[in-house]
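ugh ok so i messed up the first submission bc i forgot one of the chains. this is the corrected input, ALL of the components this time, i swear. 1097 residues overall. if the numbers dont match what u have on ur side tell me asap before i send this to the collaborators (the ones from the other lab, u know who)
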Amino acid sequence: MSHQETPFRAPRRLGKHLSLTALNLTSLGLAAAGLVLALAAPPAATPARADETCQSPYMAKITGNEEYIYVWTLGMEGVGDESDKLVTIDVRPDSGTYGKVVASVSVGGRHEAHHSGFTDDRRYLWAGGLDTSMIYIFDVHTNPGKPTLHKTIKTFVKDTGGAVGPHTFYALPGRMMITGLSNDKDHGGKSALVEYGNDGAFIATHWIPDPKDMRGADGQANADGYNYDARVLPRKNVMLSSSFTGWSNYMMDFGKMLQDGEAMKRFGKTVTLWDLHTRQPKQVFSVPGAPLEVRWAWGPNHNYAFTTTALTSKIWLIKEGDDGKWTAKAVADIGDPSKVPLPVDISISADDTRLWIDTFMDGTARLFDISNPEAPKQIYQKKIGAQLNMVSQSWDGNRVYFSTSLLANWDKKGADNEQFVKGYDWDGQELKHRFTVDFIKEGLGRAHLMRFGASSLYSS
Amino acid sequence: MRVLAAALVLVLSAVPVLADGTVADVDRRALARLQDPPLGLPMVVPQPADNRATAARIALGRKLFFDRRLSHNATMSCAMCHVPEQGFAQNELATPVGVEGRTVRRNAPTVLNAAYQVRLFHDAREDTLELQILGPLLARNEMANPSAGHVLATIRAQDDYDGLFEAAFGEPVSLRNLGRAIAAWERTLLSGDSPFDRWRYGGRRDAVDAGVKRGFDLFRGKGGCTACHFVGGDDAMFTDHSLHNTGVGYRADVLDRRAAGPVPVQIAPGVVVSLDRAAVDAVGAPPPKDLGRMEITNDPDDLYAFKTPGLRDVALTAPYMHDGSLATLAAVVDFYDRGGIPNPNLDPVLQPLHLTAAEKADLVAFLRSLTGGNMAELIADARSGGVGNLTAGTSYDREPAR
Amino acid sequence: MKKSLAAAALGAAVLSAAVAAAAGAADPGLDMARTAQFDFDPPKAGTYTLPVIKPLPDGAVLDEDGKRRSLRALVAGRIALISFIYTRCSDPNGCPLATAVLYDIHDASAADRALAENLHMVSLSFDPAHDTPEVMAGFRGFDTGSGPARSEWSFLTTASQADLDPILADFDQVVRRRVDAQGKDMGLYAHQLRVYLVDRRGRVRNIYGLGFLDPRLLVADVHTLLAEERRAASQ
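and heres the new structure output, hopefully the right one now
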């Protein structure tokens, strides 16, 4: 028997001879981050770089410039319809409405709009409410310039057996990995990873290991059961989850919480390493001070990820050693940790040399050189506003977008409660302002997570 | 023993039964507690004439208590702030967080032994459990329902309540029956038979150690605690059901507002930083006023007066005081050792005590001996019915059609 | 094809032996070595669970003889791997990739009786206009009926776009015809690379895409389902 002549017969083990090197499989590591989307149109002769979750090279990608930014926006009392909404900003360079809001879909009511993520086929954007646990699924492919509400999942808590607060929406093939941040028994930090199918049907709940139920993982002395972000590196069959705090804290008035000694004891201090394929937790690392966003490096041999701790203001490196063992260690301070600058969102560049870090309290964007992941160094900073939370950059790193809202009750009060999305060009030296959308003046609310869209994704 | 067998039979014969012909064990045991409260509690559990407990009422009340759908946005049930595993109170916060994260001014009190409370809320503004529930259901910073009718409409809209009010009360859901059901279950949360009870009321000399015994002597003697935390000959609820100004309210409302120095904040285990107050104020709303009992009576003499809590299970219900401002029992003993906080309305019963360190430790040991021996049963009862959440999700993880 | 030297790597060898033992075969067949794209030792079959994702969608398909069949009936009674492809696809990271993975598993099944007996692989075209039953029969790169027993592998298409569309919709398989700047059909498709694992009772238990199509994982999953069946049978 022979099938050697078959043109489709690849040598055993696809990776050995089929060149996947240019297809950055670690792009999955940013699937739900909305960090890196735009890239130059690849000439036919050169291998394409997949953007974000576009797992098939046949799938249309954002080539050139991203066209739209979808901003998952918290409703704000006293502003507009006071409801959470998906706001679309036009960023087509030649458009007459560049830097302007071109669409807005209100979901009715406030749900603590927070993060969102595309399905793997990139036709839908899932957006969650940390408070009410509602999940809103927006159709972004029928008309990328005007998303519509496609479906609402109201039963997250019931479906999952008590997980509360859907946060990260992380695309895996045919399904969503979602982090829930709390639970329906005490609104504390006991929490879970949850999977839903792209059709909106519940699949599974995976509780984060805690000292009373380690679920087979090592690191009982570290474990706390808390959860925040999840990111995968399929090349190593691993997933990382980080840890924030439960509903009571993330919903509470920030100033009140800082003065509540009991509440301040209830923050995550762990990063958990999982077997991606089996969804089994393997090891719990001690990472004190609420590690939030997790970003895997992109390089094909870069077996490491970064996270930053919100309260202790440090960059942590989670890395596989030469012996195959994973470790976590603090590698740099962010600003002056004794002043609690509160690092929030981070964005890694496609070449693994730069990391943008927003610090909320001083409204400052900071750029770190992470060429040596063991010793990140801040090389640039710019005050963007009175407060600052999210940062998203284009694949080529030339465009960087910022937004303001952290959580409804954590945002600054009074005049410092600026709410905006600002677009900048980055020339390698300087952030150059391109546009500002004032979300209060526009009657929208608190600007949170930004995702990039483009009509080129859905046409040939 | 105080088993009232005849009464028990009467009650059981009147209760509805499960589909399989039995009363659920958990409800049977709850009724048994009402008939024969644990050691150290008053023999007769007060029940209003129009709300005698039945298994159906208890089961319905439990279900309502844990139903998050009863808040405006389906996030808060009674149990989110009265957490069974946290002494039916809330250990993780000084004061609760309500719908949309709104600030609640006062520490969540335990529901344990609420049956014996004469007046409810820290300012004693309500007098029956049946009526008490209306407060949290409608408070904008708690469960935030826009109206009483909205609450009833929410319950009517849930299939899983079909027939339950009819079975329990012979009539559909109403405000009256809602309050009666929840109160019926709450009354069964009877916690007693603590080491202290076994020693003091059970005659078991070895039930507590010498430190507890010394602590009890201090409690009754040098500490003067029984001036407000009453202890009877046959039972003890450790409260005078009255209100007092200890200075905690004054401190929060007057002294703390004047504070200008940095704020110590724990940012990780063992790591405390001093934050500029301006930085804290930038991200915080000003703390709400709290005048205590005076808000109810408009009587200046009631300024910063709050109700004396019972002390049963006090080791489980940290943090302490009406605003949750003291983290540990040791801190509470220190507070009273200093005679409270001076202010114009300070209750004269509070005086510096000059306790030694050993005496303070004994007092804490005594307070720790007040944890009910049947706590596991009460937690299991509370968790027996699950949590009410929005329903009708989709999952394919079930047997396929054959 | 013979086992590569790299498969002698310790961890892989241990796992290979385990798989071989489970299959009762002398030669594990599957190359268990790590690669640059799958730089890990796969989990041991049966040590984890695969949640139910959804019921297997059904639809009318055509087999290589042009006979109209129900997809669900066709795979009923065995564990299935279903791969959506079109034969004109020439991108090495597209359909050929999925087909290559199935080839590896097909090869492995010659030395793994459990795979040979219990696994049914399906390559289903989403290009019915071009991929007729004859084309699909020709696409098959091997003869049936000779050599050691292997997993059955069906090469299917549909009679029409009208038959195909509901299948794609139910599988949530995105396929879009590509047109050039003039709007002319390029004979190419933009699609989401997906392979579906279906248990014996007709429930989708895993979905693989680019970055996850490691034959070692797919085989481990099939054996995990077999272990689950054994556990259920013994209860």
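quick check: Chain B has two domains: 5-191+375-382, 202-246+292-368. that seems consistent at least. Confidence is low (pLDDT under 50) at residues 1-16, 398-402 of chain B.
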